[in-house]
Write a structure and sequence with these properties.
With 186 residues, the protein is mainly β. It is built from no helices and 16 strands. The protein binds zinc ion. The site of zinc ion has 8 residues, from loops.
């Protein structure tokens, strides 16, 4: 018969009334206990229940905070492969592509986008506009920007310095500029 953790669909027989008491997300039907929702079986002594599977994938909305990786720098825009929303463990509904325009990187003037981001950097930012699976991202807030960066010479992970826009590579002594998040991963 069914065991703890088994994946079931609505209407599946998960036990008999003689053996179990029907718990959450189950119902009795003619001596049988059935699953009311998609989920996994949870047995606790004489009670059998379903832990519903959260199947609704996440659609991003304006104001959400995302984490992604810089995949390209094209003129005035940095392109991002959006990997997750930090507010939810749910999987993203779409393979979102993000972009940060040079005017949305930080407060004040930024001469070159490559002084803020480089390909491979992991960044955190806020969703400011959504057009289907394309989103615009803003990293002006102090807690937004680069979370983790690799040295462009030796690919070692870089450490923060006393300067808020400079990272340092211990392996090869190189310094590089970034728009660094307060949450930078030391
Ligand atoms: Zn290096």
């Amino acid at each position: 018969m069914n065991e703890q953790g088994d994946f079931v669909m609505p209407g599946d027989v998960i036990g008999v009334s003689e053996q179990y008491l029907p718990g959450a997300w189950t119902y009795e039907d003619d001596g049988y206990i059935k699953a009311a929702v998609i989920g996994n079986i949870s047995i606790n002594r004489h009670e059998i229940a379903i832990v519903p599977r959260t199947t609704t994938p996440l659609l991003l909305k304006v104001g959400d905070i995302i984490v992604g990786q810089i995949t390209d720098i094209k003129g005035q825009r940095a392109m991002i492969d959006v990997q997750a929303s930090i507010d939810s463990s749910r999987e993203l509904a779409l393979p979102y592509s993000g972009a940060i325009h040079i005017s949305h990187v930080k407060k004040g003037y930024l001469e070159k986008l490559t002084d803020a981001f480089k390909i491979g950097d992991i960044i955190e930012g806020k969703v400011v506009k959504i057009m289907g699976d394309n989103i615009d991202i803003n990293t002006e807030d102090p807690e937004h920007g680069v979370l983790k960066a690799m040295c462009s010479r030796c690919r070692g992970f870089m450490d923060p310095t006393d300067s808020k826009d400079t990272l340092y590579c211990e392996s090869c002594n190189r310094k590089e500029k970034r728009k660094i998040s307060l949450n930078y991963d030391y």
